[in-house]
Amino acid sequence: MDDATIDQLLIIGGVLGGLLLVAPGLIWLERRMLALWQDRYGPNRAGPFGLLVVLADTLKLFFKEDWTPPFADRFVFTIAPGIVVITVLMSFIVVPFAPGVIVSDLNIGLLFFLANSSLGAYSIILGGWASNNKYSLLGSMRGAAQMISYEVFMGLAMMGVVLLAGSFSMHTIVEAQKDMWFVIPQFLGFVIFFIAGIAETHRLPFDIPEAESELIAGFHSEYSGMKFGIFFVGEYLGIILISSVTVALYFGGWLGPDFMPPLVWFILKTFAFICFFILLRASLPRPRYDQLMEYGWKILLPLTLLNLMVTAGIVLLNKGI
Amino acid sequence: MISIVRSLWLVFLHMFHKRETVQYPEQKNKLTTRWRGRIVLTRDPDMGERCVGCYLCAAACPVDCISLQATEDETGRRYPEFFRINFSRCIFCGYCEEACPTYAIQLIPDFEMGEYNRQNLVYEKKELLIDGPGKYPGYNYYKVAGLAIGGKGKGQAQNEAPPVDIKSLIP
To answer: b/e per residue, A211-240, with b = 16+ CB within 10 A?
Structure first.
């Protein structure tokens, strides 16, 4: 094997290992941050700062009974949790962590990301369908409708960035932000992208497929043990994915003053967005299902189209001159 | 829209507020003196047992967790031969303390009674009896009661007039 191959393998291993290590760590982070915003301490007993609670949670999930209900479609029921993790991990292929630290710089990177995050909807649909339970099915129907409709303006919101950078490759997009982060010319696009991202990861306040107060746990109410754990890991990986893609598209990715290495800049910015995700959970109530759809189609879609048109017009104008 | 941003900001500010949590084993809440916790048997100021074995506490107990056997010493002073409280049943209602005529049984502000073995929650007299008067310092039942016991005859109690000679006609 030559050096390039070894480097590539190292990057793949690093990204995979890092993500799978960080995703359960987010359980701890989320509980601590939520506690911080609710005037509590959160888990602080097991190990330093309560960090070992991650280990305890994981062990607990492993030792729980892994039960498949007799009325469930066993095969689909088993593979459904895997799909969400696989698709999210696939999306990370195109995320540029630092110059050179990217699994594969596809020239259609953004499309690849969009494709994979849409495939993630299958996990919810199949999980709820295979559970053969009306609440699960309701959750998965809502999830499917939510993810598919928000996918539309997620993609359209990104197109503004693509117009400005002139490329679908994430690496090129980050490079194009050398002079100005895209959050400034594309602020509206950023806000819409982020809202769609929250809906995409079905995190609070858009956790309508789960909605524990009305649908018990929605699509994963029949899941237990590590199968439930995998859904959970998938959700946290989704948070990391949306945060890091937001950073790469709108906040200059790894770009930052020289006193810290690019990778550290990227991680810091992503961390800030992860914390913002948690802040959203701590402060906002869940909208009703029809409100969510109405908000999406009647407000966000026209705004996105307007944003896209204005951006395209300005780019054309600049080209013409 | 503004209200969403505002609530985000307000929740964010909670980061800098004081925590509500009490870090219990390290940081303890102050319990009031009337707190109903662990039950003790107290002694009078002369270090004699206050309990006279009247069974009123056992009768008042709604969960029947108190059991005792009264007996007498050679001077006629009553005391419990054994006194047993099953704390795995006790509901800490404090009725025994209210029923006690001699201030012997008292509930004190202590609740840290966790045990790994349930049998260890059955407290015998030697675990219950403390070397002090508890909440009522200076009270000694036999010093104020009209009962004659060894070392104290009729009429010798505090505030007690000497007994009237019912056979005499002289006023």
So the answer is: beeebebbbbbbbbbbbbbbbbbbbbbbbb
pTM attached to this predicted model? 0.78
Which residues of chain A neighbour B17 with C-beta distances below 8 Å?
A: 39
Residues listed for chain A: 321
AA identity, residue B157? A
What are the residues whose beta carbons fall under 8 Å from the beta carbon of A284, sequence distance 6 or more?
Answer: A204, A205, B4, B7, B8
How far does the CA of residue B111 sit from the closest CA of chain A (Å)?
Answer: 22
DSSP characters over B30-51: PPPTT---SEEE-B-TTS-B--
pLDDT of residue B148: 82
Q: What is the pLDDT of residues B73-88, one digit of tens each?
A: 888 888 999 999 999 9
Give the pLDDT of residue A55.
86
Answer with the residue of higher pLDDT: B62 or B159: B62
Interface residues on A facing B, Cβ-Cβ cutoff 8 A: 36-41, 279-280, 282-284
Chain A residues touching B3 at Cβ < 8 A: none
Q: Could you read off the pLDDT of A103-148 as tens digits, one per residue? A: 777 888 888 888 888 888 888 888 888 888 888 888 888 888 888 7
Scanning every residue of chain B, which has its alpha carbon at the shortest distance from the alpha carbon of A280? B8
- Residue A81, judged by CB atoms within 10 A of its CB (0-12, 13-18, 19+), counts as buried
What's the confidence (pLDDT) of residue A1? 62
Structure tokens that stand for B18 in this block: 């004081």
In this predicted structure, the answer to whether residue A200 has a pLDDT above a threshold of 80 is: yes
User: In this structure, which topology does domain B32-142 adopt according to CATH?
Assistant: Alpha-Beta Plaits (3.30.70)
| Contact with chain A for residue B12, Cβ under 8 A | yes
The contacts of residue A103 (CB under 8 Å, 6+ apart) are A8, A11, A12, A15, A92, A93, A94
Q: A18 burial class (0-12, 13-18, 19+ CB within 10 angstroms)?
A: middle
pLDDT at B90: 92
Q: Select from B14, B18, B20 the Cβ nearest to the Cβ of A37.
A: B14
Task: Please judge whether A284 and B7 are an interchain contact, meaning their C-beta atoms are less than 8 angstroms apart.
Answer: yes
CA distance A276 to chain B (A): 9
**Nearest C-alpha in A relative to B19:** A39
Within 13 Å, how many C-alpha atoms sit on residue A49's CB side?
A: 9
From edge to edge, which strands make up the β-sheet containing B122-123? B66-72, B78-86, B122-123
List the single residue in B with minimal CA-CA distance to A38: B14
Q: What is the ipTM of this complex?
A: 0.75
pLDDT digits (tens, 9 = 90+) for A84-98: 888 988 888 888 887
